[in-house]
Amino acid sequence: MLIALPPSEGKTAPTTGPALDLDLLSIQPFTDLRHELVRELETVSAGDNALDVLGVGATVRGEVEDQQHLSSLPCAPAHEVYTGVLYQAAEFSSLSEEEMARAGDSVLIFSGLFGATSPTDLIPRYRLKMGVKLPAGTPKARWRKLWHHLDERADGQLVIDARSSDYAGWSIPDSATHVKIGAVRETDGIRKVITHNAKYYRGLFTRLALTAQAVPTTADDLAHLGSEQPEIDAIELSGTGRNLTLTVVDREQAA
User: Fold this and answer.
1) Residue 235, CB half-sphere, CA atoms under 13 Å: how many?
2) How far apart are CA 235 and CA 184, in angstroms?
3) Taking CA 127 as the corner, what is the angle to CA 54 and CA 135, rounded to the nearest 5 degrees?
4) Which residue spans traverse the membrane (predicted)?
């Protein structure tokens, strides 16, 4: 099993912890590009036009200013730094030692700065989207050349894909069973995609897969885990072969 997650816009800045050591992060073939991106992000963040370059608003000016010294900021496990809806639902911090070991082996968190990390890798708070135009090019274009290093990890595995489109640059190899997770709200037979709830359910299925007594190996296994949750009205599996979508259906009656 492999679980592919996006980062989150919401992040908590560690107040204590070691400084960033890129050489200790998972997936060693990504190390050189990580060094390049950190140096460029520190330089960009010190510029007068940093907010414009990074595509962020004045409310995070302090975060951007901190990035001038990104290499020396305190770090914490990635699952503690990311604090969005998905991560709240996944509840990594409440996992047992055995379950956290499973997470360390099977979860990849994709990001513009680090490419992909384990949830236990130590990182600082940062701001860098995949499409930001850094001096040497966007992270998206530069990571594209390195994604193939992940293919072996996915070979023959069930890949639970909870990534948003911005972080879906790595294409799951054909040898894997690829299951995307989505959510819709159905009102009197009319369906509407619900982005916020989709993030929640992606986090929930991450937790279910990590805490299951038996590791899910098929899309049906994953759907069964969800069907046992009282908060889920219905689950549908669609697609063909090894490319599937698991859709959570929230049903409500029109007023």
Assistant:
1) 23
2) 10
3) 45
4) none
